[in-house]
Amino acid sequence: PPKNVFTNISTYIHEIEVLYIFDNTPHKKINIPDELKDKCRYLHTGENEGIAKKLNEAMKLALTEGFDFLLTMDQDSFFGDADLKKYKEIISKEIERNNISMFGMRYYELRKNENTNSSVNKLLITSGAIINLKINEIIGGFDENLFIDGVDTDYCLQTFTKGYKTVLVNELSLKHQLGEEKKVMTPLLKSTFRKFHNPTRLYYIVRNHLYLRAKYPTKHEYLKNKIVINEIKNCLFYANDFLNYAKSILLAFKHFRKGILGKLN
Question: Which of 19, 22, 68, 199 is geometrically suited to a Cys-Cys bond with 244, CB 3.0 to 4.6 A?
Fold first, then answer.
């Protein structure tokens, strides 16, 4: 985890009853500060078991301990001042709360004149999501075949398939980083910023995109090829590791065709 992980946690620790910390690193990497220990539960197996499995474990644990909602946060995400309190107030006033499986927050800047009204049935990311645990039992949890990438997309699509809703709260913005951005030079000699991931992450992005399109043949409007093609282009042309990225892409197609899912060994 980054050095500022506990600074990030401090932006929401006072608005929750308990914090489950799932550490997917092989060796214990963190020491919880004394002032947070009363609220934190540290869980560590010594293996990287992926985000889907840990989210499922968190939801089962929270249900067992009598909770109704679970907030899920990435290690690098945090809230602005009083934003989680406002977020909870918005959810508590939602009259259709019992039909909404997942609430999410905006993690990008609004365009000029874009309204801040909440949006229904948008794809949400897990970071900053608040999950209705009772509906989760009906949905069946997160798909562990995915390991990472597309885990949140699958949960949203499963929500729609089961007749429930997601709600994106546009009024508030989560502080969150998606991928790594670097300044690059385009073929037209124009300086710009492009986002890209490492070769292993690109493997999961491509393989899981293919898997989800096969799993949800009637939901392709949520699974646009163009988005993944842009990810591939950025990695191949701007990350200065063409061969390894190309190998990852080919392996993703090969594994998808053979039905090889879960963690890449």
Answer: 199
Residue given tokens 């900053």 in the structure block:
128
- What's the distance, CA 36 to chain centroid? 24
* Mean residue pLDDT across the chain: 91
Concatenated DSSP letters of 55-79: HHHHHHHHHHTT-SEEEE--TT-B-
Kindly report, residue by residue over 165-208, the tens digit of the pLDDT: 999 999 999 987 666 667 666 666 677 777 778 999 999 999 99
Q: Which residues pair with 87 in a beta bridge?
A: none
Structure tokens at 30: 């963190």
Q: Is 42 left (phi over 0), alpha (psi -120 to 50) or beta?
A: beta
Cα 166 vs. chain centroid, distance in angstroms?
A: 14
With residue 246 as reference, give the H or E element that holds it: helix 242-258
Burial classification of residue 164, based on how many CB atoms lie within 10 Å of its CB (0-12 exposed, 13-18 middle, 19 or more buried): buried
Distance CA 245, CA 250 (A): 9
Which residues, at least 6 apart from 246, have a Cβ–Cβ distance to it below 8 Å? 236
**Largest Cα–Cα distance in the chain?**
58
Q: Is 262 helix (H, G, I), strand (E, B) or coil?
A: coil
For the residues of 173-236, what is the DSSP string, one character each?
E-B---SEEEEEE-TTS-EEEEEE--HHHHHHHHHHHHHHHHH-TT-GGGS-HHHHHHHHHHHH
Distance, in Å, from the CA atom of 58 to the CA atom of 72, rounded to the nearest integer, reads 9
Residues 6+ apart with CB under 8 A from 262: 50, 144, 145, 147
On whether the pTM is more than 0.90, the answer is yes
Give CA–CA dist 176/229, Å, rounded.
Answer: 23
